[in-house]
Design a protein that fits this description.
The chain is mainly alpha-helical and about 210 residues long. The protein is about 75% helix and about 0% strand. The protein contains 7 helices and no strands. Helix 2 (about 35-55) runs antiparallel to helix 3 (about 65-85) and helix 4 runs parallel beside helix 6 (about 165-180). The termini are far apart. The model has no long low-confidence stretch (mean pLDDT about 90). It comes from Candidatus Avoscillospira avicola.
C-alpha cells in the first residue's frame, strides 16, 4: 500500500466532509431547497479542486474521475438537510450556534485542503515552483468558499471577514518548507492543518482583520 497516497486521500476526505457540512449549513441559513443545499455543499467542497486541476492540466478534474468525491459531498448535505427537517424548524432557534459550528468546519476544511492543494501540485511535477504550489494550496482552500458565497449572493468571506486567506498562505508555505526539508508527510500534514485551523479560530475569537482603507 502506498501510505503517502492513502494519507493524502484521508486528508482530502476530511476536508471534503468539513466543507460539505459548512456548505449545507450555509444553504440552510439562506433557506435553500434540497437541491440548493446539495449544490452549495458540492460546490464548496469540490469547486476549488476543480479549478486547481484545470490549472495543473489534470483533465478531467478529480471529481469526474472518482465518484467518491461527489458521493461524500452529496451524502453529507443530505444528512444535514434531513437533520434540519427532523428538527421541524427548531434549527433556526440555534442559528448563532450553527454559524459557529459552520465556522469550525470551515477552518478544518481550509487546513485539510491547503495540504491537498500543495501536494497535488507536487504530484503533478511542479515541486520546484514554490509560488505555484502556494497558490494551488490557496486556491484549493478558498476557491469553493468563494463560489459558495456567490451562490447565496453575499460578499465572499475571504474579502471581508477576519484573516481568511492569510492562514492558508502561511500553511501552504509551511508545507512547502517541510517538504523541502524532508519531513515525514504525516507530520507535515498535521502541522499544516493545525496551523491553519488555529489561526482561523484565533482570528475569529479575537476578531483579527487585515487593514481596511478609511
Amino acid at each position: 500500500m502506498d501510505w503517502s497516497l492513502f494519507l493524502l486521500t484521508v486528508v482530502e476526505m476530511i476536508g471534503m466532509v468539513a466543507f460539505a457540512l459548512n456548505g449545507a449549513l450555509v444553504g440552510l441559513k439562506y433557506h435553500l431547497d434540497l437541491f440548493g443545499v446539495i449544490l452549495v455543499s458540492v460546490t464548496v467542497s469540490l469547486g476549488g479542486g476543480v479549478v486547481r486541476d484545470l490549472i495543473i492540466g489534470r483533465i478531467p478534474p478529480a471529481m469526474f474521475q472518482d465518484y467518491r468525491y461527489l458521493l461524500v459531498a452529496v451524502v453529507t448535505a443530505l444528512l444535514v438537510f434531513l437533520a434540519a427537517v427532523i428538527s421541524r424548524g427548531r434549527y433556526h432557534d440555534y442559528e448563532t450556534k450553527v454559524e459557529a459550528l459552520a465556522n469550525i468546519f470551515d477552518a478544518l476544511g481550509l487546513g485539510a485542503f491547503t495540504v491537498v492543494g500543495v501536494q497535488a501540485g507536487i504530484n503533478a511535477g511542479f515541486s520546484d515552483n514554490g509560488f505555484l504550489l502556494v497558490f494551488l494550496g490557496l486556491l484549493t482552500g478558498i476557491g469553493g468558499g468563494i463560489l459558495r458565497d456567490l451562490f447565496v449572493m453575499r460578499m465572499p468571506v475571504v474579502l471581508r471577514k477576519h484573516v481568511y486567506a492569510l492562514p492558508v498562505i502561511i500553511g501552504a508555505a509551511l508545507y512547502l518548507l517541510c517538504y523541502r526539508l524532508g519531513a515525514p508527510q504525516l507530520v507535515t500534514s498535521g502541522a499544516v492543518i493545525f496551523t491553519v485551523f488555529a489561526l482561523r479560530m484565533l482570528a475569529t475569537y479575537y476578531h483579527w482583520n487585515l487593514p481596511h482603507a478609511p
